[in-house]
Predict the 3D structure of the following.
Amino acid sequence: MTPRFDLIGIVTDDLAASLAFYRRLGLDIPDGAEREPHVEATLPGGLRMAWDPVETIRSFNPDWALPPRGQSRVGLAFLCDGPAEVDKLHAELTQAGYDSEMAPFDAPWGMRYAVLLDPDGNGVDLFARLDQQD
């Protein structure tokens, strides 16, 4: 199956400020989400938006550095049929010459995850729930 565009992800160094901003734009973000390591909101039409604090990213990738303001901190995420499809697509795209930012790994939030870079250097995530069957 073809991966499905499912999520827009933002990495933030101030989760509370970011959530307050998007709440003011009308997104339904639960109260208290500021204390979570990962926050999601479903947008009209079913697309999801997610926020990850820098500390969450560094907890599984200590060498990761937050891009400077003005450079991309937003990633597009594609839902795959299962963990094996994440690995397969990552391999196919890197063999085709696209750069990998993060090889496939089992993320602490229960997802198989990988990050590629599109030709302009934007992060493109591939993911599937670990409990999802291929």
The mean pLDDT is 89. The beta strands are 4-12, 39-42, 48-53, 74-79, 100-106, 111-117, 123-129.
